[in-house]
Write a sequence for this structure.
């Protein structure tokens, strides 16, 4: 009786083994199966919180691409700096170790000086002026320059005007910024702006700003209300001044070689649709507007200053 048990076990083991062989490697390897079925998977990474308008817009973009390509192009999105900071994911996309990435435009000045013009204060009065620039000659210049750096610009998800916030004192005039350690991006223009106001500009990676405010490494920053609220910065801030000094936008790019190697039908029908060249192509702006209205009422509890006191 016992001598028969090993034989049964051997038979079962062989049955399982050959079952896997017949199923094939594709059943055990989703990536290989996807490749065989002609599914293209692209990864898109960025640093903002998953519930931020830019992140929501990117998720919507991914759904649109999958729908327009009939499921043949799948974009996996990674938020909250899961794959690195703005600079890290952009550099990964440039190298080709990551297919796609998104970064705030001030952090793109490392790749082309043309982005510095976008950081000048008060060059846009409203979002329509922003879209006109992005869709016009300035946007065309940026796209051409980015291709020279190894990127294909996909679209610009935006999230509103930047305001000045801090945890030291109310800001009514530029002189009120004197001596304050203000967090900035890597943009030389943004740093020069705050230096001109008398502040001490301090570049800090976005993922480190909350801790920097807690520890006193910086005492304030300039950002949109929605981004501040989504990242819970109101917990470590006391004062906010609505000045609309700069318009905030990200730029979604793809490695140029990988873009050029995509099948032509997917470039035309999914990744490169004309209405996605602009943030007002129903990708992130409606989300940003709704978030702005909800976050404004909450952030406003921090301050009681007039709009544009520094303009």
């Amino acid at each position: 009786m016992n001598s028969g048990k090993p034989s049964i076990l051997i038979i079962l083991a062989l049955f399982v083994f050959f079952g896997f062989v017949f199923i094939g490697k594709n059943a055990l390897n989703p990536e290989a199966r996807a490749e065989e079925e002609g599914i293209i998977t692209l990864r898109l990474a960025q640093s903002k919180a998953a519930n931020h308008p830019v992140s929501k817009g990117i998720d919507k973009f991914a759904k649109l691409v999958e729908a327009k390509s009939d499921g043949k192009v799948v974009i996996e999105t990674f938020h909250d700096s899961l794959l690195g900071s703005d600079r890290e994911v952009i550099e990964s996309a440039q190298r080709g170790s990551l297919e796609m990435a998104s970064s705030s435009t001030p952090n793109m000045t490392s790749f082309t000086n043309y982005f510095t013009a976008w950081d000048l204060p008060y060059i846009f009065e409203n979002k329509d002026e922003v879209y006109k620039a992005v869709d016009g000659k300035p946007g065309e210049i940026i796209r051409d320059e980015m291709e020279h750096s190894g990127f294909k610009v996909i679209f610009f998800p935006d999230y509103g005007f930047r305001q000045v916030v801090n945890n030291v004192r109310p800001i009514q005039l530029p002189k009120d910024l004197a001596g304050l350690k203000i967090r900035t991006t890597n943009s030389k223009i943004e740093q020069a702006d705050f230096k001109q106001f008398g502040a001490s500009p301090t570049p800090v990676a976005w993922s480190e700003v909350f801790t920097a405010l807690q520890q006193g490494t910086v005492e304030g920053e300039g950002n949109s209300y929605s981004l501040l609220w989504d990242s819970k910065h109101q917990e470590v801030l006391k004062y906010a001044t609505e000045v609309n000094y700069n318009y905030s936008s990200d730029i979604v790019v793809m490695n140029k070689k990988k873009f050029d190697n995509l099948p032509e039908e997917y470039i035309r029908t999914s990744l490169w649709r004309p209405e996605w060249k602009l943030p007002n192509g129903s990708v992130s702006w409606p989300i940003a507007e709704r978030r702005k209205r909800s976050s404004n009422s909450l952030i406003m509890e921090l301050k009681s200053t007039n709009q544009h006191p520094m303009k």
